[in-house]
Amino acid sequence: MTHENPPISGSRRDLRLDLFRGLANWAIFLDHIPNNAVAWVTTRNYGFSDAADIFVFISGYTAAFVYARRMATQGILAGTALLLRRVWQLYVAHILLFVFYAVAIGYVAQRGHSHLLDEFNVAGLIEHPIATLSQGLLLKFKPLNLDVLPLYIVIMAGFPPLLVLMRRSPDLALGASAAVYVLAHLFDWNFTAYPSGGWYFNPFAWQLLFTMGAWAALGGRGRVQALARSNIVLAASVAFVIFALVVTSAIRFHSRDILPAALIDFFDPNDKTNLAPYRILHLMALAFVVIRLLPRDWRGLRSLVLRPLIVCGQRSLEVFCVGIFLSFVGHFILEMYSNAFITQIAVSAIGIALMIAVAFYRTWSRTLDAPSAVEKHFAAGRRPAQQGAIK
Fold first, then answer.
1. 370 in any annotated domain
2. DSSP string spanning 248-270?
3. Does a structural domain hold residue 384?
4. Is 305 helix (H, G, I), strand (E, B) or coil?
5. Phi and psi dihedrals of 272, rounded to 5?
6. Close Cβ partners of 277 (under 8 Å, ≥ 6 residues apart)
7. Number of folded domains in the chain?
8. Residue 383 falls within a domain, yes or no?
9. What is the pLDDT of residues 94-122, one digit of tens each?
10. What is the structure's pLDDT at 389?
11. Is the pTM of this model over 0.85?
């Protein structure tokens, strides 16, 4: 199926995307704090996919939604330049987070907690600082929990040619992405990491989830919604979500005897690095259920209760970076001071409150860049006089 310029799904911003990306950011923060009971509310404990899958899929959708429009109105070259500018912003954000993160860990480690250097994979910075920092700039060296942004940077950097193809033939672009995914599994493709091994999030595999999100934004959404309206698809999706819940619970609660050993062994360990096919199926099953139960025009999306989550999704990059840094702070507090249940709740609640504060601050600060009504009026009034003077 080929389109010269496939329709971009929807003319209005879909607040469901912001809602679930906000939820993903909160979940990533909670999941990165070890021994945190509050993290049991996140999706990773009840199925095969988790917040990272949601984040990457929605990022693909929003990237295609934004930059396909730019290419359509300003041309391919301008759209590509704007997309690469976003890649640079992501890279700068990652480097700043990398520096602050490493410095914070080093500062705490020097005060009697040297085990954190190995625990957070920053010991190499002490032993070989120049080589390690150089590899960090190349995205090959990553401290613990700093894997998602490099993945996002690499996928976005390679997105322009795929987006050009997808604007003409979404199905062909999705097929090419699926082919890369299959070849990566067959031939063990992955980016090399420093000092050894490969990337925790294999870009050759995870690009498929990003591309699926982009495909949904550029014409695929109509077909997805048609499937979601099918009672058979809904029943199959619910059945798979329940199956994933049972399998994941059996593994997490060490109740392997309730299911055949061969079945448990197939899903354990859950192959997150190479984005196992069952993770994709689980995310798609969840998406079908959500589409059916949560319509785009649901009034709750405009409520004050969900506003903090939606704003966190809209200011995703800033909230993500703050959340990663706060997860280390929370880890340190729970490990070094108190691991009581009330402390876990307090650390989680304060961290989420700070993420919300950052999101609202960034939303407010962005309004300061726009010219005020007075400035617009003044500029409009001055322009004819200036043109007359020149004449």
1. yes
2. HHHHHTT-GGGS-HHHHHHHSS-
3. no
4. coil
5. -80, -35
6. none
7. 1
8. no
9. 999 999 999 999 989 888 888 889 999 99
10. 41
11. yes
Q: Please determine, for residue 4, whether its predicted confidence score (pLDDT) is greater than 60.
A: no
Residue 134 in domain: yes
Range of the domain at 51: 15-378
Token pair 């979404």 in the structure block, residue: 170
- CB atoms inside a 10 Å sphere around CB 105: 24
Q: What does DSSP assign to residue 37?
A: G
Q: Which residues contact 57 (CB under 8 A, 6 or more apart)?
A: 209, 210, 212, 213, 283, 287
pLDDT tier, 24 (very low <50, low <70, confident <90, very high otherwise): very high
Place of tokens 């001055």: 382
What value does the mean pLDDT take over residues 23-46?
95
Mean pLDDT of 300-321: 96
Q: Name the 3-class secondary structure at 14.
A: coil
Cα dihedral: 218, 222, 227, 228 (round 10)? 100
Phi/psi at 3 (nearest 5 deg)?
Answer: -130, 140
Token pair of 310, please? 């939606």
Instruction: Specify the amino acid at residue 350.
Output: I
Angle at 67 between CA 63 and CA 70, to 5 degrees: 160
